[in-house]
Design brief:
mainly beta, 6-stranded antiparallel beta sheet, elongated
């Protein structure tokens, strides 16, 4: 994750971590999981794309987005991603 930029409008922070090679995990703190929406896209130029390998999980007052995975064709690659979570 070469672009360590994060923002949480609730000022509780965002935890970014590498889950495995080419997989990321993001935890948004102090947000409600009710009627949430996650968007993931590759960041930068090139043919890479990213998606969720598993559903996000609301727990307590946080939301955990596991297994954000990026690809180049059918091959998993370690690529920067833009990950957003919006809740109502």
């Amino acid at each position: 994750m070469p672009y360590p930029v994060s923002y949480n409008s609730r000022s509780a922070g965002v935890q970014l971590s590498r889950y495995a090679a080419a997989r990321k995990q993001v935890i948004f703190g102090d947000v409600s999981g009710y009627r949430g929406n996650v968007q993931v896209t590759a960041f930068g130029y090139g043919p890479e794309f990213c998606n969720l390998f598993a559903l996000w999980e609301p727990y307590s007052t946080s939301v955990r987005i596991r297994y954000v995975t990026c690809y180049n064709g059918a091959v998993q690659v370690d690529h920067p991603a833009m990950i957003t979570y919006m809740a109502r």
